[in-house]
Design goal:
Length: 141
């Protein structure tokens, strides 16, 4: 019997804001899913007036400014393979209560940029950090 060495990696996700929503969302949440790891849900709380701002085009922007992290246990030799071929699935949900959420829109984030030169641990605390805007689409596209 051979033992596979497993490492623990930390996936940190932060949602700054949500904009361009085509449908009203009472309590928005952003769910993240990678492989068969548990889904990570970042909620924005009740979408009250104080959490909304107007974007340049006059559309509503929901300010979230929340994040979560989770630990992933993977074999070191599979990290590059997983990051280069499996996207991070992102879902915008309307969280009715703690056990009930409705899918509003979804999309994916290509993690391939993280697959090159995977060096763990990194002396740089921002190693692997990427900031960007990622479009999500409803069932109608």
């Amino acid at each position: 019997q051979t033992s596979r060495l497993m490492n623990v990696y930390c996936l940190e996700l932060f949602v700054v804001s949500l904009d361009g929503l085509a449908v009203p969302v009472r309590r928005p949440g952003v769910a993240f899913r990678l492989l068969d790891f548990p889904t990570v849900l970042v909620t924005a709380g009740e979408a009250s007036g104080q959490d909304r701002a107007a974007a340049e085009g006059g559309e509503d922007v929901i300010i979230v400014r929340r994040g979560k992290s989770c630990l992933l246990r993977l074999a070191p030799e599979t990290v590059e393979s997983v990051l280069s071929r499996v996207p991070l699935f992102v879902m915008l949900v309307d969280v009715k209560d703690d056990s009930n959420a409705s899918l509003v829109a979804s999309g994916s984030v290509d993690l391939g940029v993280f697959a090159t030169n995977v060096k763990f641990p990194s002396p740089d605390p921002k190693h692997g950090f990427r900031r960007g805007s990622y479009p999500l689409f409803d069932l109608m596209g």
